[in-house]
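F.,

This is the one I mentioned.
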């Protein structure tokens, strides 16, 4: 009885696990970093969907709004 419950539970969880693995964050390869200005800098990254510029803060790890880098005067790397 317990093995049949486990089997039915695993059948229900399989689509959920597949969905979570597909929805995982895309890994990016950092190609270049610009010089920091006013505590912000641009990162040039390559992802599976192309090349992008990300605004970063020196004080924290998360991605910032592009306006922060622009107002700080940070220059995008080539």
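My design for it:
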């Amino acid at each position: 009885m317990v093995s049949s419950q486990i089997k039915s539970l695993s059948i229900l969880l399989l689509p959920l696990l597949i969905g979570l693995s597909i929805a995982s964050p895309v890994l990016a390869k950092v190609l270049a970093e610009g010089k920091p200005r006013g505590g912000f800098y641009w990162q040039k990254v390559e992802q599976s969907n192309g090349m992008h510029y990300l605004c970063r803060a020196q004080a924290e790890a998360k991605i910032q709004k592009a306006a922060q880098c622009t107002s700080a005067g940070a220059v995008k790397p080539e």
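The radius of gyration is 21 Å.

Talk soon.
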